[in-house]
Structure prediction request, 523 residues.
Amino acid sequence: MEDDKHLENMQSDIADSTASGTPRPPDVQIVNEDAPTPMQVEANQNDNTTAHTTTIPLYSKKISLKIILFFLALGVIGAVVPNANLVTAISAIFLYIGMPSSLVIGIISARDVLMRLNHPEMYGKNKSKSRNIIPAHWSLRLIFVVLTFIASVGSVAIAMFIAYVFLAVRACELSGNSKCI
Amino acid sequence: MTRHFKIKNYIHSSLKLLRIQSYYIIALQFIIALSIVASINSYSFDALARENLLAIGLSLLSIACWYINATAINDLSDFEIDKINLAKDQERPLVIGKASKNEIKIIAISAGIIGIAACLIISKQAALLIGSMLVLNWVYSMTPFRVSYRGGLAQLLLPLGYVFFPFTLGFIALNGDITTTTAASTLVGLYLLFGSRVLLKDFRDVKGDKKHGKLTFLLRHSVFTVVKASTTAYMLGLTILVTEVINLDLYYLILPMAFICGVSMVLFNELAKTKKWREQKPLLAPIGRLNTAQQILLLLAFLARPAGFSALVISVIAATVTVAMIWSAYVSLRNELIKKDI
Prediction:
């Protein structure tokens, strides 16, 4: 802002001098003295406290992925262990871990959404000053909702369901029942 | 003014005083009570509703009358404060000049009488219950007690009307036993969950409350303390309700409840950091909607068992409720933030 004012003053000074009949010197260059030098620009780029170079990381994707992999791993372990008691124990771990995982995903998803809403200019694909990141048409909105749901809660739910089916079928097989699927 | 026009005006003002969204939430407590009666007796909700259609209809009418009486008395009591806080609120006919003080008094008395009459048809117990709740309306808003001016006491007593009354009326109307562990603990859980919501209600009224010396819980303490109290009540209430869902062997229903709890925690945390109304306003509606979502999931848990829903059907309904309510909370938050920008 200060730089702009400085430039404006210089330009108006020059315009005034031209209007008053004073000839403009031939080699006058409009130079903003406060503008950063190339070295300063480089230093600013390295300084991660500068607002417009900061990006806020989204945690929900990574943590959700880790939780999904963990559940799938539980399912796979349950499917290969040879003992019914072990399968039951893994099922119990699965149930107990499900609840805190769900809570954590809720917290990180909400944090990320709030960050996006509060700082829309910080995110690559939505570098607009508007907070309106949802499509306007109702059909596109519906697709947006379904995709968002699958991406956040749905993917974890699907992973949990797969793991649950693996464990249930395995426990059934180990109990000696012939009709487990 | 012709008699026809006057009656039309009374009905119009009464409907405004009913504040339909709040009424839905009160009615939800009543329906949860009905679902518990059905669940405890392993009875289909449909069959139960068909057999007790008159009692259910009268109960819903008496709840509406009680609420109209409550809002009418409160509007009369807080007229000067509402002129500052809610000057353009269409649901306040007295403030916007659509009704006179006398008309509001007549509406309050008529609603009280109709409510007692409806409850008398159900049973004497029901009439006694609504009678005591009408007294609570008076005690809450009018001198000499004026509980609404007494900080935390107001928040402690309000769920009596919003949760205890409709919940107990549900049990009375269907001859259910409210002393069972499930009924009693659910009542406590819902009471706390609603208490957490009530604790946040004073944020919008700070300006007028301050000017007229109405020392609410928020004005007596800090924003941080209010949010802390609200979060504690929320967590305690939810823990009790989750225990009830576990007792019904519906473990997978806890997952969406935990997820919504996580989202609510973030919103509570954001609210605790705010100082101005324009920062607080966008967060309050989403917190309220997510609170309602927990109650709807609880209702689903109680309805699912006697109805014999399969795990897949329950999961699909729970997912739909969760998505719809989180979506609604998100849209509300985004719209308020856009308004804040403008």
Observations:
- Residues 277-307 of chain B form the longest helix (31 residues).
